[in-house]
Specification:
Helix content is 18%, strand content 26%. By secondary structure, the protein is an alpha+beta fold. A four-stranded mixed β-sheet has the order 1-2-6-5. A hairpin with a 7-residue loop joins strand 3 and strand 4. The chain is globular and about 45 Å long.
Amino acid sequence: LDEHPNVEAKSASQLGHSLLETVCAFANEAGLGGGHILAGVEIDTQGLFGAQYRVIGVPDADKLQSDIASQCATVFNRPIRPRISVEMVDSRRVVVIHVPEAQPGEKPVFFAKNGLPGGAYRRIGSTDSSSTRTTSSRRTTRPSSRTPTSRPSTRPRSTRTGGSGGRRTRRPRN
């Protein structure tokens, strides 16, 4: 197993901010279709073939599932409803969280208390990146604060006629 744009391994045995950042990033990143978080898996850098992942398990999988569902429903600007399951791997519990990609009209998803842009995360490769880091290098164009100058209207004006009872009527076109 290796981390991938739509797979993230976390050793988390309890809910932390890092896990929620990954939820936010999977919900925001266009074209991934969401992603999977594997809680109860950690990196082993001492492996024979370089970095590998090993299952360490989650001691209280039911509590972790409940905490994830609760936080995903309340900490973001809109509720996220991940699919959560518990799988047994090597006689240990691994919590598998599938985060769906938000619909285009629902994006960006962000931490409500942080607002935009700092509370939004994106999935860049196999990492979660704050939107302030991904957009700060881009040049943005801000709309001018000046109002456009007034120009005379070329449309015919309405006139009042004595016999119309005060109603406006249009001048006939020539």
